[in-house]
Write a structure and sequence with these properties.
The chain has about 270 residues and is α/β, with parallel strands linked by helices. It folds into two domains: about 1-55 and about 210-245; about 55-195, no CATH class. It is built from four helices and nine strands; from the N terminus they run αββββββββαβαα. The protein has helices at about 10-50, 175-180, 215-245, 255-265; strands spanning about 55-60, 75-85, 90-95, 100-110, 115-125, 145-150, 160-165, 165-170, 190-195. Strands 2-4-5-9-6 form a five-stranded mixed β-barrel. A hairpin with a 4-residue loop joins β4 and β5 (about 115-125). α1 (about 10-50) packs antiparallel against α3. The longest helix is centred in the N-terminal third of the chain and has 43 residues, at about 10-50. The chain starts with 9 loop residues before the first helix and ends with a helix. About 20% of the residues are buried. Belongs to the SURF1 family. This is SURF1-like protein. Keywords: Cell membrane, Membrane, Transmembrane, Transmembrane helix. It is found in: Cell membrane; Membrane. It comes from Mycobacterium shimoidei.
Length: about 270
Amino acid sequence: MRRLAFLLRPGWLALAVVVIAFAYLCFTVLAPWQLGKNAKTSRENQQIAQSLNTDPVPLNTLLPQQDSSAPEAQWRRVTATGHYLPQTQVLARLRVVDGDPAFEVLAPFAVDGGPTVLVDRGYVRPEEGSRVPPIPPPPGETVTITARLRDSEPTAPGKEPFTKDGVPQVYSINTGQVAKLAGVPLAGSYLQLVDNQPGGLGVIGVPHLDAGPFLSYGIQWISFGIIAPILLGYFVYAEIRARRTEKPPTVAPDTVGDKLSDRYGRRR
């Protein structure tokens, strides 16, 4: 037990607490975070791949009501007949298209016999830094569009909408936020136009089918969570072994001759 008493020293206790906390974070936070991102990316890649080989379907089959959304059908191509509401236009700022900054132009679209949806008409490039360029209005007549269904983005924390150059601007394509700015109810999902569509601008392509490094990162965090306690156990074992090999210094007993010599010497 004395050999194990060193484990109660503050230094060893602190090290043990750090290792246990690190392993706990690896298994409960860091690995699930990366594995969750991998699952999301894999799911989105599968949706994109399916959309490329699937014919468009009417929008009303996926968004039958005004409050509908279809996250399971993201990137699916749909068709819709209706008209734009040109009096309301919102820009999504700080976007990047083909490696360069861009605005994405958003406009409500009233579907005949269906909901009003937000349509991403495409992108325009800013002028002189971040100035809004002239944007051609969408057609005012009834048109039929083909687009990809997209999930509403979460709002950017601390980034409130504002108006610049006479146009409302947002930091994310959140249908609820845009609906408040436009004063028009919008469905939960929005549409992203494909090429050669009425009201379309610069075409935003689909992302590359790349799973990314998230799976390998998740496996690495799991490995770190396993290795850290093992290394701590190894250090404890090495310390115990080193202490066992240590022997206290011994003093050789006096021989009888030494004792006699010392005795007679004292008498003299």
